[in-house]
Amino acid sequence: MRTDPTVVTAADVAPEPWTGRDDGPGPEHLRWHHAVGLDLAGAASCDAALVGFRSDEGVRRNKGRQGAANGPRALRRALASMALPSPVRVLDSGDVEVADGDLEAGQHRLGRVITSLVDRGRPAVVLGGGHEVAYGSYLGLAGSRAVREGGRLGVLNLDAHFDLREDARPSSGTPFLQMARSEELRGQRLNYWVLGVSQPSNTERLFRTADELGVRYLPDTECGLLGLSRVDAFLDTFLAGCDVVHLSIDLDVLPAAVAPGVSAPAAYGVPMEIVERVCTRVAASGKLAVCDIAELNPDLDVDDRTARAGARLVHRIVTSGGAPSRPA
C-alpha cells in the first residue's frame, strides 16, 4: 500500500466545521474548535491529524453491544470546547464509514488514509468505532514509509482484552491476531504489548495464544497507583524496543465508573491517572505514529463520561506529542 506523499487520501465522509464555546479572541482563549482545520492541503503543516472510523460491524460480529459507529461524532463534540494550553494545528480529514457490512474493505480504506497522513510526518489519531479499527490502523502503518524503510514497529494496546480471538471472520475481537498473521507474512514477529489485561475477561486459550505469539502484558491488578514503578518499567522497555509506535486505546481499559459507554464495561479497570500517564509518555517519546481510540458507544454513555475520558486522552496525546522518529 503506497501513496504519493504529497497527497492526503480523502476519507468517505467529509469533515464538518467544528464549533464550541468561545470566550474571545487570542491565544489566551484558545480551544480545540479554534485549532482544527479541514483543508487536506494543509496536512504538511499540522501537528496532528484526525480521522474517524464509523464502524461497529466488528462489534456486531463479536456479539457485543452495538453503537460504536457514533463514537467519532461524540469524541469530536467532547473535544471541541476543551481549552488548549498553547497553539496547535490539527487537521480533521473526515471519516471512513462501514455502512454496508464490508468491514474488511473499510479497514483497507482507513489504512490508505492513515498511510497518507503518517507519510507527512505527523501523528494520526483515529476516532473509533469498535476495536476493529486497530487493524485498519495497522494496515496504514505497515504501508507507511517509516515502516517500509526499516523502522521497528511496536504495538501497545491499553485494553482489558487481548483481542487475539481466532474467528472465521474478522471482528473487534481479532485485530491483533490479524496483525500477527500479517507480520508473519512479512517475515516478522509482531511486537505486541498489552497493558491492563483482565484475567476474568480472557479465556485460558487467549492467554496461551498470547504466550505463543510472545506477547508481553501487564495485568490490570498490577496497573494501579501502587504499581506505578512497574508500569513505568513496562513502558520504558517497550519504547526502547521500537522506532514507530501504534498506540491502541480500548476505552474499556478504564473502570466502568469512568467509562460506562463501552461494549464491555470493566469491573476493575486501570485508573485514569495511569492511562493518561502512559499516553502522555508515549506521545512525548517522539515515536508515536498512530493512536486509535476504540469502543466508545454514545448510546450507553452516562453524562458523556466515556466521551469526555476519551477526548481528554486525545487532548493529552496531541498536546504532549511530536512527530515520529525516522529510522536511522
Automatic annotation (TrEMBL):
Query: Which Pfam families does the record associate with it?
Result: Arginase (PF00491)
Q: Which residues bind Mn(2+) 2?
A: D159, H161, D250, D252
Q: In which pathway does it act?
A: Amino-acid degradation; L-histidine degradation into L-glutamate; L-glutamate from N-formimidoyl-L-glutamate (hydrolase route): step 1/1
Q: What is this protein called?
A: Formimidoylglutamase
- Gene responsible for this protein: hutG
The superkingdom of the source organism is Bacteria
- Could you list this entry's UniProt keywords, alphabetically sorted: Histidine metabolism, Hydrolase, Manganese, Metal-binding
Q: What does the entry comment about cofactor binding?
A: Binds 2 manganese ions per subunit.
Give the EC number(s) under which this enzyme is classified: 3.5.3.8
Q: Which organism is it from?
A: Streptomyces bugieae
InterPro entries the UniProt entry points to: HutG, Ureohydrolase, Ureohydrolase_dom_sf, Ureohydrolase_Mn_BS
Report if keyword Nucleotide-binding is assigned: no
Cited function: Catalyzes the conversion of N-formimidoyl-L-glutamate to L-glutamate and formamide.
Q: What class of enzyme is it?
A: hydrolase
